[in-house]
Amino acid sequence: MINVLPNGLTGNYTTEDCKRLGFKLAIYPCTGFIPAAVAMEKSYAALRDKGTDLDHCNGWQIKDFFERVGLKASWDFDRAVAEETRSEINPKKYEEMQGHDIV
User: Residue 90 has what pLDDT?
Assistant: First the structure.
């Protein structure tokens, strides 16, 4: 196994380099967070300098972000549970509860 960090001690090996060197497993632990930090830095700089970050959004809306990171599926599940709960429980039940009944 080889641990490849950008500009690290092991060198900037590609996956093909690692195969050629005989490694069966190569990990690239910075693959997500360093590029994300660089992108955020550019976006915040644009907001500061130009007053907008639109050039860095690639046409995405917030709903596109939610779908990409799985929040839409999570919210759909929550909505389904809430609807099921509402259909099974009489809402008046909660209106009639006393404070000590809730605990």
Answer: 67
Strand blocks (E) in 1-103: 2-3, 26-27
What is the structure's pLDDT at 24? 97
| For the chain, the helix, strand and coil percentages under 3-state DSSP, each to the nearest 5 | 60, 5, 40
Q: Where are the domains of the chain?
A: 1-55, 60-103
Cβ atoms 63, 72 nearer than 8 A: yes
**31-78 residue pLDDT tens:** 999 999 999 999 999 999 999 999 999 999 988 998 898 888 888 888
Cα distance from N-terminal residue to C-terminal residue, the chain: 54
Question: How crowded is residue 4: how many other Cβ atoms within 10 Å of its Cβ?
Answer: 20
Q: What does the alpha-carbon distance between residue 80 and residue 76 come to, in Å, rounded to a whole number?
A: 6
Q: From the CB of residue 66, how many other CB atoms can be counted at a distance below 10 Å?
A: 14
